What does this fold into?
Amino acid sequence: MEQNERELIQLEGRNPIAEALAAGRSINKVYILQSARRSHADAALARLAADCKENGAVVTYVTRAVLDSMAATGAHQGIIAEAAPYQYTDLQEILLRCERQNKSPFLILLDHIQDAYNLGSILRIADGAGVDAVIIPQRRSVSLNAAVAKASAGAVEHVPICRVVNLSKTVLDLKDAGFWVYGSAANGKTAYDQANYSGKIALIVGSEGDGISDKLLAHCDFLLTIPLRGKVNSLNAAVAAGIITFEAARQRGIS
It folds into this structure.
């Protein structure tokens, strides 16, 4: 079921909550381990509690058992927050911003990624490589939940995320706008480190089980493969995305 965007988002862990504060996201309520009442017991957690309170959050001190029962990730680090939903970015705004900066955009499109860890990891990769935006479909994609925020190490607060109704139409629109479209595929014909990543580019990363859909594969200008030498003949979505993205970033002079 798709999450109601008016509902609060649960964040878990110190770094995701600190990054949400730094990004200016509204945090309504924070549940913190009782020991944070005493700053000498855990100074960092006490400081984070104070920062949340200064930014208007209601702070409630609870036992570890309560936090454990609330946590979705199993790694709350003594703090859980109820925050405002993520604000998606309009893709056209990203393209106009790049045009004003005289910059060729680098986009990543995710074809129905279902695993929260993969999505969070790809957001972290996108942040590290200087990707301009990550595009996800409105339906059949994992929600931007606590697990995604945790896996992204806070990158979810800094990478523009665009959500579109029709991923196939978006790809066609990008091609009309002069983008070269690359797809990550095990049976691709172009080695990832032999491709030319200059200009406006869009990298499509497929879902964990099915890869890129046939319709989107047909729109790709290049299908990229990562040569493997071991017994396992596939990489997960995030690992493949990271290898290709940082090679593209290296060529483009971003990293």
